[in-house]
Amino acid sequence: MDPATLGVVAAALVATKFGEGFASEAGRSAWLKIQQVTQAVRERLGRSAAQQAALAELDESPDDLDRRSVVAAHVQREAESDPEFAARLDALVQGASSDEAARTLIAHASGNAKQINIAGNNAGPITLS
Q1: CA gap 113, 6 in Å, rounded
Q2: Under 8 Å between Cβ of 117 and 110
Q3: Within a 13 Å sphere around the CA of 111, how many CA atoms are in the beta-carbon half?
Q4: Within a 10 A sphere around the Cβ of 124, how many other Cβ atoms?
Q5: Are the C-beta atoms of 9 and 109 separated by less than 8 Å?
Q6: Cα–Cα distance for residue pair 36/94, rounded to 1 Å
Q7: Is 70 helix (H, G, I), strand (E, B) or coil?
Q8: Residue 63 gets which letter from DSSP?
Q9: How much is the pTM?
């Protein structure tokens, strides 16, 4: 996954409340994988005041797309400057995307990055706007 898309997906996963209240084992599994992505991003972005502030602002308003964009840009810069971090984060995102319950959220996040991700069994029309 390229650093820009990785940043967008990671920021969306950090902002999500996905999985809260899930009672099924599948939901818990997806939530744990998303939490691994979130923890990696928070650890990495916890090294500078500007990055910490961006995360705090995103925590205050997780649905604010501008705040997500700021965090995504920080993640992108970190991924571009550190291939090991990029590879680790990519592996965590790929691990989360292997979970059926998390796949929809990741597809939506990267879809907002102007990419189309269709997985699983799909039937019927697909409308792009």
Answers
A1: 10
A2: yes
A3: 13
A4: 5
A5: yes
A6: 11
A7: helix
A8: T
A9: 0.74
